[in-house]
Amino acid sequence: MKAICVFSGGLDSMMAADLIRAQGIDVLALFFETPFFKSGKARKSARAIEVPFKVADITRRHLEVVKQPKHGYGGNMNPCIDCHALMFRIAGEMLEEEKAGFVFSGEVLGQRPMSQNRKSLDLVAAESGLNGLLLRPLSAKLLAPTIPEEKGWIQREQLLDFQGRSRKPQMEMAQRKGITEYPTPAGGCLLTEKGFSRRLKDLLTSKVDVETGELELLKLGRHFRIAPHTKIVVGRNKRENETIRSLAGENDTVLRSVSVPGPTVLVSGKLSENTLDIAGAITVAYSDAGGLDASEVRIKEGAHESRVVFVKTRDKVEFRRYMI
């Protein structure tokens, strides 16, 4: 028998995977990746407990859920209930391909007050379409028996009754198994972060069709909405400048300071003489132009040849009203 673990890479999913494997079940740790959560830490966690690891990119399907969640958002742009239901639904779609019998996760009853209370867990299970094939081994004794338990694939008495927000039982369990390194509970999903959510909401409000590169840009630099359909991203350091250049689309405009060190600035959306003037002024304002009256800026509009213009130095305070 084989089972798919919807694997976040956190301590809970690590312990759940180990618990199911201890019953003689082959476990596949499946991580769902989008620009909002990446697989690096989860891969390391799977390696630590020595289970096979697989990544599935669900960006397109997940973005539709983020745009219009049936059950609403959490504190920011995080549609946790809809997101969990989608992940379990996709895991269910993969059961036949992976020759697996059921799906499980590291969810703990009551650990998250909104998305892991009994009502939410039942709702997610119902909307996943798994029809009894979704097991939460860490809290199974507190929940209704599932098909894997009823059919004897899993021994219910060997499952657990963890409940509440404390992770002390999981930490003690990990210690007994000699597992000392695991990710901290917070920081896994960018959709729970206020600043990132503000940028994402702005992007989804201004565009119908969003590209993956635009989502990646939300993680970088300073963002300015200078017109309803024109946005500027300003790099803050060398790494961000390089990444911004690599993410520039064929219709984007890239500005760089020539005279003095400064940021890479990307302009996306509708371009006009006024918006280009503002972009040039922001490029100089966030450069090392300092006491100079003006500074040279190189402008590259899409596939056109680049050109250099002189831009008057202005105080960056002038542009705060545009900041997202």
From TrEMBL:
SUPFAM superfamilies attached to this UniProt entry: Adenine nucleotide alpha hydrolases-like
Sequence ranges assigned to domain NFACT protein RNA binding in this UniProt record: 221-323
Gene3D superfamilies: HUPs (3.40.50.620)
InterPro entries cross-referenced by the UniProt entry: NFACT-R_2, Rossmann-like_a/b/a_fold, ThiI_AANH
Keyword Transferase: no
Residue stretches making up the Thil AANH domain: 2-138
Taxonomic superkingdom: Bacteria
Matching PANTHER family: THIL AANH DOMAIN-CONTAINING PROTEIN, TRNA 5-METHYLAMINOMETHYL-2-THIOURIDYLATE -METHYLTRANSFERASE
Annotated protein name in UniProt: tRNA 4-thiouridine(8) synthase ThiI
Species, as recorded: Candidatus Desulfacyla euxinica
Native organism taxonomy: Bacteria, Deltaproteobacteria, Candidatus Desulfacyla
